[in-house]
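User: quick one, fold this
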Amino acid sequence: MSEYLFFGASFGIGISPIEHKFPDILLNPRSSHPVIGFLLVLSASVMWGFSNVLLKSSIKHGMEPATANAVQTGFSAIFMVLIWIYVVSTGTLSKVNIDAFSLAYLIIGTLVGLAFGTTLYLHGLKLVDASLASPLSSTSPFFVISMSVIFIGENITLSLIFGAIVVFAGVVLLGRKEGGGKRSRKGIVLVSIAPIFWAMTVVLYRVALRSMDIYTANAIRMSILGITMCLYVRLSGSGCFSSERRAIFESAGAGIFNYVLGGTAFLFGLVMIGASRASVLSSGTPFFTMLFAAMFLKERIKRTYIYGGILVVTGLILLSVS
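Assistant:
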């Protein structure tokens, strides 16, 4: 643990232990086998792919991107807080430790990546197909590793440089025009820059989770995110429930798959295998998005999407090896 990251004061809340039968993975993920971490992050990719399709469908049914984000985060916040209350009441968390600096990293990461970055992505998703938006937005591992090099001092290797070139080639290929499909230059730009903010979130969360348990972090980050997005929607003049009922249910379902299931699985995997490996594994999301988009949205999977997606994932694997 880097000493310079944790100078803030800490405080704890004592909880009387009650008998429980939680699996060890839920109590001490840092001691779990790395294979479990890989499987958790991979499962998160599947759930994120399905979540992308649900969000796209809700936007197609008339819900504004910011409103869709507010609905999914609001419902997710309720679930996360209920889960936190449950694990505390069962004695799973005998003590809740909240380091002041870790709390700051958690809040900043939530606002930068999940509030601002995801809103950018959803605005882009409104302008392009989900099967195109997801591969374009899958470059966050590249930015995670780059930020680790800059801020943590990791070595730059030839594999890292070559991987970055391959990722860039894949993104360029994904942005090429091919007959049919919905795309716009503005949409491509928005979904392409969102990963920068998501990468900042991953790095900040990695720091915060060194001294904060996942359940508490989830409850705090989702509460802040849900309140922030609903306030934004309210101040911008569009009501959270102004869209048709189907779109509301789709956005709420997207939140369950995105944050409650996928996000929790990713955070556990992040603790078990580290930020770089977890980010690279999560780059499998575009393939699942393309699959679900073809199944449920009847989107046509174009050859350039497939070739570009393969290049992006290949480059990210090279980045992981580096």
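User: anything notable?
Assistant: The chain has a mean pLDDT of 78.
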